[in-house]
């Protein structure tokens, strides 16, 4: 897959959308001036972090299998973090934590044609050596902070892009979840609700016990605090 390396860009996802070659590519930038997170949030993208997007085109990829994209991205990130001696945890659906703090976020933007996905753009931001803003230090961390040494960005890029070339299973995704059976907080537009998380379904839904009943929760409607 072709890799495009940039010094600076508004957003690697937006750069992919402007590409009209209809080819699978990886775009890597040293910084983003308008990085995006999930649900329209800003994503701080200062020097020292690794910011990349993978754009893939598909044939006969059913929308019912869309969670596979998230699985592949999340497990690839976890395996990359593991290679530096750390223990990553997936916070459903797409954040990766180390020692309870976010070290990576993922934004997936897909294009649909009927009941099929024709294209996906997977944006990944990994905190490597970047200095975190004061307001984020209680909830976010970096590879360098966790390992106690500066990490070559090129090394992280090479390991991550290699891992992103592989396919993974939902079972592998769930190996990085250590909070099944625990009480979690579900955040919705209407407020917060406690639940006991017990599993993640093959379609990506979080299965919880709420009020004594099993319920499937969609990440499009709910965010999770563990």
Could you explain the architecture of this structure?
By secondary structure, the protein is α+β, with helices and mostly antiparallel strands. Helices cover about 20% and strands about 40% of the residues. It is built from five helices and twelve strands. The strands form two sheets. A seven-stranded mixed beta sheet has the order 1-2-3-7-6-5-4, with helices on both faces. Strand 10 (about 205-210) and strand 11 form a beta hairpin. Helix 2 packs antiparallel against helix 4 (about 155-165). The N and C termini lie far apart (about 35 Å). The relative contact order is 0.15. The mean pLDDT is about 95.
Unreliable segments of 5+ consecutive residues = none
Tell me the span between the first and last alpha carbons: 36 Å
Element string (H = helix, E = strand): EHEEHEEEEHHHEEEEE
* Biggest sheet character: 7 strands, mixed
Structural category: alpha+beta
List keywords for this structure.
alpha+beta, seven-stranded mixed sheet, five-stranded antiparallel sheet, 12 strands, globular
What's the short version?
The chain is an alpha+beta fold.
Explain the layout of strands and helices.
Blueprint: E1 2-9, H1 12-18, E2 25-32, E3 50-57, H2 67-82, E4 88-91, E5 95-98, E6 101-113, E7 116-126, H3 143-147, H4 153-164, H5 170-174, E8 183-188, E9 191-200, E10 206-210, E11 213-217, E12 223-225
Parallel strand pairs: 1-2
Antiparallel strand pairs: 2-3, 3-7, 4-5, 5-6, 6-7, 8-9, 8-12, 9-10, 10-11
């Amino acid at each position: 897959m072709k890799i495009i390396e940039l010094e600076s860009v508004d957003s690697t996802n937006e750069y992919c959308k402007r590409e009209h070659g209809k080819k699978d590519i990886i775009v890597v930038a040293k910084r983003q001036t308008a990085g995006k997170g999930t649900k329209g949030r800003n994503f701080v993208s200062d020097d020292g972090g690794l910011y990349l997007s993978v754009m893939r085109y598909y044939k006969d990829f059913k929308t019912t299998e869309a969670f596979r994209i998230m699985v592949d991205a999340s497990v690839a990130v976890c395996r990359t973090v593991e290679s530096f001696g750390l223990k990553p945890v997936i916070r459903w659906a797409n954040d990766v934590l180390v020692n309870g703090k976010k070290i990576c976020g993922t934004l997936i933007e897909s294009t649909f044609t009927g009941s099929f996905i024709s294209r996906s753009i997977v944006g990944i931001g990994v905190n490597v050596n970047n200095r975190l803003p004061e307001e984020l230090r209680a909830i976010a961390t970096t590879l360098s902070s966790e390992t106690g040494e500066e990490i070559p960005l090129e090394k992280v890029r090479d390991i991550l892009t290699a891992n992103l070339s592989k396919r993974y299973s939902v079972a592998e995704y769930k190996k990085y979840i250590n909070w099944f059976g625990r009480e979690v907080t579900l955040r919705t537009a209407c407020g917060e609700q406690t639940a006991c998380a017990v599993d993640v379904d093959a379609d990506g839904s979080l299965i919880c016990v709420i009020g004594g009943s099993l319920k499937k929760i969609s990440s499009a409607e709910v965010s999770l605090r563990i």
